[in-house]
Amino acid sequence: MPSSPQDRYDRVAISLHWIVGAGVLAQLAFGWTLGELKSGTPARALATNLHKSTGLLLALLILARLFWRLRNQPPPYPMGMAARQLRAAKFGHILLYVCMIGMPVSGYLASNFSKHGIRFLNQVQLPPWGPDDKVIYGFLNGTHDVLAYVFSALVVGHILFALYHGFIARDGVLSRMSLVRDRRPQ
What we know:
Helix content: 55-70%
Number of helices: 4
Order of helices and strands: HHHEEH
Strand content: under 5%
Number of strands: 2
Distance between the termini: 10 Å
C-alpha cells in the first residue's frame, strides 16, 4: 500500500480518471448498441446525435485530463516492479490516450463529411463544415469503428490489470488511483 500522499495521484487526477473512465465505458456501450437500431429511423437519428453529443462532452473532459496529466507528475510506481511491467504500463497508457483522443476526433471529423452533421443534444444543429463525401466519411467512420475495438480491448485489459494489482499482487499500484484513501497508521 502507498504510505504517503506522494505515492498517490492527486485528487484532481483521481477524480478525472474515474469520471472519464465511467464516461468512456458508457460511451463505448452506447456506441455498441447503436447498431441495434434500424438505420434511417428517427430513433436511430436521435440516439446517434446523442452519442455524438456525449462524445464531444467527453472529449472536453479527456482534454482536461490530458492537460492535468501533462502539468502534474504522476506518483512513482511501487518499488520492485519489473522493468517489463513498467514498460507495458507506460505503453498501455499511451495507447489509452491515443484512443481517448482518436475516438472523438475521428467521430467528429466523420460527422463533418456527412450531410447530417451533428445535432448537439438533439437541439442545436452544428452544420457540417466538410462536403458530403461518402469516401472520406467511410474512412473516418471506419477509423472510429476500428478504434472502438482497440479501445474496448485496452479498457478491458486496463481493468483486469488494475484488479490483478489490487487483489492478487497487492503491490500498491491500484491504491495510487483509489477513490478511498488508506487511513491506517503507517
